[in-house]
Amino acid sequence: KVDYDVCSNYGNWLYSAGIGNDPRDNRKFNMIKQGLDYDGDGDYVRLWVPELQGIKGADIHTPWALNSAALSQAGVTLGETYPQPVVTAPEWSRHVTQRPQGRSPHPRRGPARTPVQRKGRGIDFYFSRKKDV
Predict the structure, then answer these.
(1) Non-local CB neighbours of 49 within 8 Å, separated by 6+ positions
(2) Tens digits of per-residue pLDDT, 39-95?
(3) How far apart are CA 116 and CA 60, in angstroms?
(4) Within 10 A of 97 (CB to CB), how many other CB atoms are there?
(5) Residues in domain Cryptochrome/DNA photolyase FAD-binding (predicted)?
(6) How crowded is the C-beta side of 25, counted as CA atoms within 13 Å?
(7) What angle do CA 113, 25, 120 make, to 5 degrees?
(8) Using CA atoms, how far apart are residues 94 and 38, in angstroms rounded to an integer?
(9) Binding residue positions for FAD
(10) What DSSP character marks residue 115?
(11) What would be the CATH architecture of the domain defined by 28-97?
(12) Domain limits of the chain?
């Protein structure tokens, strides 16, 4: 059995790109927030993007926001060993500027924020009948 529905898959990609049909005004998929919520330590990114393996913790989700010393220590050169971002959405800024380490030019404010891990919110959560997890 193949778990694939062309219409659902296409609709989900559109939604993720921020151009799908959504009844809420100005709703956009925030990749940085999703990365912090579901891959707080960056292990998934590190698995599939070996160029960023030297970046520790959640900073891996926003390498373009690291200062030059942190990038150098990680062996990353933006534009050479890893591309510059094509676009940075304004919605990302509150997640980028509040990261715990190595950020420049915006200093962190307030206590350190540990990304919330959504236990039980994997794909099985959305397809189970029991939602009181």
Answers:
(1) 60
(2) 999 999 999 999 999 999 999 999 999 999 999 999 999 999 999 988 888 888 888
(3) 16
(4) 15
(5) 2-98
(6) 0
(7) 45
(8) 17
(9) 3-5
(10) P
(11) Orthogonal Bundle (1.10)
(12) 28-97
Give the model's confidence band at 104: pLDDT under 50 very low, under 70 low, under 90 confident, else very high.
Answer: very low
66 and 103 Cβ atoms separated by less than 8 Å: yes
**pLDDT confidence bin for 106, thresholds 50/70/90:** very low
> Which three-class secondary structure state does DSSP give residue 89?
coil
Residue numbers in the known binding site are 3-5
Q: Residues with Cβ < 8 Å from 29, sequence gap 6 or more? A: 15, 16, 17, 18
How high is the pLDDT of residue 115? 45
Measure CA of the first residue to CA of the last residue in the chain; give whole Å: 28
Q: Which of 19, 33, 77 is nearest to 51 (CA)?
A: 77
Q: List Cα–Cα distances, 108 to 27, 62, 68, 74, in angstroms.
A: 26, 15, 17, 21
In this prediction, residue 103 carries a pLDDT of 38
Distance CA 51, CA 79 (A): 12
Residues 45 and 52 sit within 8 Å (Cβ to Cβ): yes
